[in-house]
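RECORD TYPE: inverse folding
INPUT: structure tokens
STRUCTURE:
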């Protein structure tokens, strides 16, 4: 191993030991027997659980800008967005592997700050770094593999939605895209807009809610909203072989200050097509939906973080998506969220 590579690994390892995120968050019965430093990590899974795996890339130029996004936010978000895919299954994260390629000039302070942001996310999410690989590259390239677990047979898939069920989302929609637009338009220089960057830079992951929805078996289908509601709902509908009717007036759209709305930032458009909110999108059979509003459930929901849940529409037999506006008029809802391969899609 090159000396530079050893130094990089040492820097990453230091961020973790400083913050105390070293595997103590594993669920009862699971154990990280060998972590960073050997040829591979060894993990003993807990009895009665199933393993859930995901991987995610976070690339300079495609997902963030090296000279715009603060390095600690890059580290935080790289892990948070990957963990959101585990939340979407109802799984609890356990350990992750990090493949990291950096230009030489980012192997010092930039790396320290990025690793600190990632270690903070790791502590909040209860996930331990189990190992990784480092390399030199002209642009920052990160690839994270996460392993989580779920009680046997309770993982929630995208394919379980049935006609007549209700469609819910957690939290608000469009806040992350609003933050990105503020950065894109150079408005972040103005102090007053900076609090609006938070949802874009440090997304919250709905781990407790996802786990609770899976364990309580209330959700028949679930996924996280990473590329925008219109695009991700289309994926859920395709996987389930159903369609959807969404009511625009019911969408929990993030508030857009009037001055930004005048500059063309439309709350409805942001809520429908804005990416990276990492909220949960899930369907619930009608007879169970009442239970989401029952006092006992509201109490349980308070424990999972006071996340607002909003019913935004219902699942239809006809396999297309429809948007009903405030006056009751319907139009086709087309997937217009983030797609890295779509020609003409504004790059970050
Ligand atoms: Mg996802």
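DESIGNED SEQUENCE:
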């Amino acid at each position: 191993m090159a000396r530079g590579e050893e130094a990089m690994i040492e820097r990453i390892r230091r961020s973790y030991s400083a913050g105390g995120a070293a595997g103590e968050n594993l669920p009862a019965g699971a154990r990280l027997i060998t972590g960073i430093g050997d040829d591979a990590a060894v993990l003993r899974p807990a009895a009665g659980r199933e393993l859930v795996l995901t991987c995610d890339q976070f690339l300079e130029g495609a997902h963030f800008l090296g000279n715009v996004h603060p390095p600690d936010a890059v580290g935080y978000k790289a892990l948070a967005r990957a963990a959101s895919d585990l939340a979407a299954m109802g799984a609890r994260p356990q350990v992750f592997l990090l493949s990291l390629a950096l230009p030489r000039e980012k192997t010092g302070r930039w790396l320290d700050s990025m690793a600190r942001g990632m270690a903070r996310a790791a502590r909040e999410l209860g996930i331990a770094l189990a190992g990784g690989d480092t390399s030199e590259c002209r642009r920052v390239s990160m690839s994270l593999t996460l392993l989580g677990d779920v009680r046997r047979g309770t993982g929630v898939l995208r394919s379980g939605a049935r006609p007549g069920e209700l469609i819910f989302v957690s939290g608000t929609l469009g806040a992350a895209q609003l933050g990105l637009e503020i950065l894109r338009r150079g408005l972040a220089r103005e102090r007053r807009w900076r609090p609006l960057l938070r949802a874009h830079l440090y997304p919250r992951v709905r781990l407790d809610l996802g786990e609770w929805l899976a364990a309580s078996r209330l959700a028949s289908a679930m996924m996280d909203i990473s590329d925008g509601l219109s695009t991700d709902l289309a994926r859920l509908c395709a996987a389930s072989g159903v369609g959807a009717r969404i009511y625009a007036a019911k969408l929990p759209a993030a508030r857009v200050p009037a001055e930004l709305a005048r500059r063309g930032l439309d709350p409805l458009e942001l809520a429908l097509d804005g990416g990276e909110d990492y909220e949960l999108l899930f369907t619930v059979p009608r007879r169970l939906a009442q239970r989401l509003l029952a006092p006992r459930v509201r109490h349980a929901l308070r424990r999972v973080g006071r996340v607002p849940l909003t019913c935004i529409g219902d699942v239809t037999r006809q396999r297309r998506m429809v948007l009903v506006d405030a006056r009751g008029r319907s139009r086709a809802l087309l997937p217009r969220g983030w797609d890295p391969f779509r020609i003409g899609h504004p790059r970050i």
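NOTES: The mean pLDDT is 90.
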